[in-house]
Specification:
Elements (H helix, E strand, L loop, with lengths): L1 E2 L2 E2 L9 H41 L8 E6 L5 H9 L4 E8 L4 H12 L6 E6 H6 L2 H15 L4 E6 L5 E6 L4 E6 L10 E7 L1 H21 L3
Parallel strand pairs: 4-5, 5-6
Antiparallel strand pairs: 1-2, 3-9, 4-7, 7-8, 8-9
Length: 221
């Protein structure tokens, strides 16, 4: 259109219905990603605070010591992992758990990539994977694939409801944490046993390792 010798493009800045639909979809996707990142940051802050609070609440047991704990705070294997990694490495890790949330899964993978966790055997409940949403399924699939791509990591989906964490750190401690807590940030009243007893570590190391290796043999492609 020409008005007073000036050309005006009437379509400039006007989106077609299809372009408008695509823009709205992209904006929605961006909002979802932003909310996801905000949730991850909040959860990581919860774990960091819990690790500090846990350290103030109870010392790590010396060799031969056992502590029994009842708490409403976020004290679980991932909290203990963060606490241990502040001072040393984790040479061996054996974990049987019902569920892992996104922050804990990503934190474990990052610690492995940085060489802070040297080797691990993980059992995660197939029950949780079956009954949760698709995002949880993808997280577990990503975690499984990550383990498959690292020679020192082993992973199994089993009908598991045990909650056991056994670790040998770079200082020679053999910590075991047993109790009701999953690797999540939504703590209720949780009951825990935290100890540094080599015999207990070897016991849990044995059965977790055996179950994971059996699963791997049965599911070899």
């Amino acid at each position: 259109m020409n008005i007073g010798g000036i050309d005006f493009d009437m379509t400039s800045g006007v989106l077609t219905p299809e372009e408008l639909k695509m823009r709205k979809a992209e904006e929605k996707k961006q909002r979802i990603e932003e909310r996801k990142m905000e949730r991850l940051v909040r959860k990581e802050e919860i774990y960091c605070r819990a690790a500090v609070d846990f350290e103030r609440f109870v010392a790590l047991p010396l060799r031969g010591q056992q502590f029994r704990i009842v708490t409403g705070n976020c004290y679980n294997p991932y909290t203990l992992i963060k606490r241990i990694l502040r001072k040393t490495t984790i040479e061996e890790m054996y974990l049987a758990i019902y569920s892992i949330n996104d922050v804990a899964a990503e934190g474990l993978m990052k610690a492995v990539e940085l060489g802070r966790i040297k080797a691990g055997y993980f059992i995660v409940s197939v029950l949780f994977r079956e009954y949760r949403d698709r995002a949880a399924h993808r997280r577990y699939d990503d975690f499984c694939t990550f383990c498959q791509n690292h020679e020192e990591l082993h992973h199994a989906y089993l009908r598991n409801h045990a909650k056991v964490f056994a670790v040998r750190d770079g200082l020679g401690n053999t910590y075991v944490l047993e109790g009701s807590a999953n690797l999540s940030d939504n703590a209720k009243i949780e009951q825990l046993v935290l100890e540094n007893i080599p015999e207990t570590f070897e016991f849990h190391k044995g059965w977790i390792r055996d179950e994971v290796l059996k699963y791997e043999r049965e599911n070899e492609q």
